[in-house]
Amino acid sequence: MHRFLIAAFLMLTACGTVTVSTATPRGPSPSPQRPAQEQPVASAAARQFVEVVQTVEPVAEAACRRAASQDNCDFLIVADDRPGQPANAFQTVDSRGRPILAFNLALISSVENPDELAFVMGHEASHHILAHINRMQDSASVGAVIFSGIAAVTGANADAVRTAESLGAQVGARTFSKDFELEADRLGTIITARAGYDPVRGALFFNRIPDPGNRFLGTHPPNSQRMDVVRRTVAEMGGR
Question: What angle do helix axes 114-129 and 38-67 make, rounded to 10 degrees?
C-alpha cells in the first residue's frame, strides 16, 4: 500500500484534505539524518504544498460542482512519499469514487514557485472534472471491439482475436489522450487563475520536463502546444 506523508508540524485547515501519516521504524537504528541545509528546503516545500492545497482545492471543487459531470467533487489531495520516484502527479478515484490527486515528494520539491504547483494541481483536478478516466475507458472499449471485430471477420484464430482486442484497447485509450491533456490544461488554467495564482508562470513548469513532441499515439502533446493553450485561455479571461 502506498504511504502518504506530509510534515506533521504543519497546521492544516478543517477540510483535512492532506493525508498525514508516519512510517513505523523497522529496526532499532535511527534513520540517517539529512544534511542540515536540506531540512529548511524540505520544510519550505511542505509548507508551500499545504498552502497551495488549501487555496486551490475549494476552487477546484467549486468548478467540479458547476460542471455537474461528476457525482463526487470532494477531492482528497495527498503526498506520495515512496522513495526514488521521478517527479510525478496523477489523478485517480478510490473504491467509493472519491477523486484523489497525488503528488510525489520529487515533484513537490522540484517546483520553483507556488504558481507551478497550483497549475499542476489545477490540471490534475481538471482530469476528474472533465471525466477523463471514464472517457478513456470508453475509448478503450470501443477500440477493443473494433480491432477484435476486424480480426474475427478476417478469419483470425482466437489468440489473434485476443491480441487484436488488447491492441485495440491500447489504441483506443491513447486516441484522445492528447486532447484530454489540452482540455485539462485549459480548465487547469482557469482554476489556477481563480485561485489567485499566475497560470502562465505556473505553466513554465513545462520548460523543465522532457518535450514528448508530436508522436503518433503519444499520450501528451508537445510542450509548446500546451503553453499556447494556457496563453490563449488567459487572454480569453482578460489577462487573468
Answer: 30
Within the chain, strands assigned E span 76-80, 89-93, 99-104
Q: Extract the C-alpha cell encoding 215.
A: 508522436
pLDDT tens-digit readout, 155-204: 554 555 455 445 444 444 444 578 889 999 999 999 999 999 999 999 99
Task: Name the grid cell of 135.
Answer: 472517457
Q: What's CA 87's distance to the chain center, in Å? A: 11
Cell numbers 513532441: residue:
213
CA-to-CA distance for 5 and 15, rounded, in angstroms? Answer: 17
pTM: 0.68
Contact, 154 vs 232, CB < 8 A?
no
Torsion of CA 47, 208, 212, 123, to 10 degrees: 30
